[in-house]
Fold this sequence. Notes:
Elements: H1 6-17, H2 21-29, H3 35-43, H4 62-74, H5 83-95, H6 98-110, E1 115-119, E2 135-139, E3 142-153, E4 160-166, E5 180-186, H7 187-192, E6 195-199, E7 208-219, E8 223-224, H8 230-266, E9 268-269, E10 272-273, H9 278-306, H10 312-336, H11 348-356, H12 365-376
Helix pairs in contact: 1-4, 4-8, 5-8, 8-9, 8-10, 9-10, 10-11, 10-12
Amino acid sequence: xxxxxxxxxxxxxxxxxxxxxxxxxxxxxxxxxxxxxxxxxxxxxxxxxxxxxxxxxxxxxxxxxxxxxxxxxxxxxxxxxxxxxxxxxxxxxxxxxxxxxxxxxxxxxxxxxxxxxxxxxxxxxxxxxxxxxxxxxxxxxxxxxxxxxxxxxxxxxxxxxxxxxxxxxxxxxxxxxxxxxxxxxxxxxxxxxxxxxxxxxxxxxxxxxxxxxxxxxxxxxxxxxxxxxxxxxxxxxxxxxxxxxxxxxxxxxxxxxxxxxxxxxxxxxxxxxxxxxxxxxxxxxxxxxxxxxxxxxxxxxxxxxxxxxxxxxxxxxxxxxxxxxxxxxxxxxxxxxxxxxxxxxxxxxxxxxxxxxxxxxxxxxxxxxxxxxxxxxxxxxxx
Length: 383
Ligand SMILES: Cc1cc2nc3c(=O)[nH]c(=O)nc-3n(C[C@H](O)[C@H](O)[C@H](O)COP(=O)(O)OP(=O)(O)OC[C@H]3O[C@@H](n4cnc5c(N)ncnc54)[C@H](O)[C@@H]3O)c2cc1C
């Protein structure tokens, strides 16, 4: 599997070689956005992987996109700075109108615009997405948005955002997943006319924000798909996001196992390499096995997604297995670097923080277990 799509892997590795560990370390230290890196990815066409060829992209599938994300993380970078464009893309490609596709996709392909943000989570409802309180009320040829979002990433480094809001009050819906709609928001325009962005300082170098909407007007032509069907559409993005993040965790997992294997093979204590001790070998070997197993589920999730088949179970399971595997690998890597694991110049502590996020976001491990228990195994619904 690690040798599949060798041409993509070689291309990304060559690009990443121009952005060594020092680059990512400095960006992390400065809490900056890796502009030069994302620009280079865009210039070489990688950010347009999922855009159909007729709109200037490469017309690749989610599987290929996942290999791109995996290789970035495996090379020591963090795809979190740019993965939004990948998981948001299919929402627009699959559910956008011909007019929206023709208007937006060529500009995304050329790099003129970035579609890096997706606004779903809210402060008072959290994981309970269907209860979200942000409303979009139709007035003439516009929708008026009011409400609040939290943890919305890359808003300051994106031109467009996909926003989920309620268009029909919950009380008037027969199912709680109905009555939600998705919109394309022009971020710069919105910041002039009703959307306030408040950055959230956080543990990783991840640009993420609180958003406040106060009578923000969105033209009706920016509604994606049919009004009221937004929850179904947003799942396209969420399943893609889970499969892509699985791939990123797999990239991290290989980075950690490679890094620690090299270190323990060289570091001598008690007159021999520490990697000669089975107490050191076994956690690393176990983490590697888990990364490889998660890799298989990632392929399955992406294969189903690209075939247009249901993949909710596989995307969730891939994300959970991969996040767990990369976290085990991170722990082993930090542990067997001893004190040096805490030194920034080894990059272990940075990658350790980055990969920890994926136990919680974009969906927590508990919620995946609950999804599988209810929707795959058929156990009674718990909420
Ligand atoms: C750095 C970062 C970037 C993010 N970027 C985005 C973004 O771009 N767009 C976006 O929309 N969101 C984003 N998020 C939000 C992310 O998706 C949510 O944080 C995540 O879904 C969890 O929601 P919550 O924080 O509200 O946790 P809560 O829903 O409050 O849950 C907290 C914890 O309680 C547990 N829990 C909750 N309910 C149950 C239950 N029924 N059964 C068992 N356990 C339960 C889980 O362990 C969970 O981790 C981001 C978050 C972070 C930290």
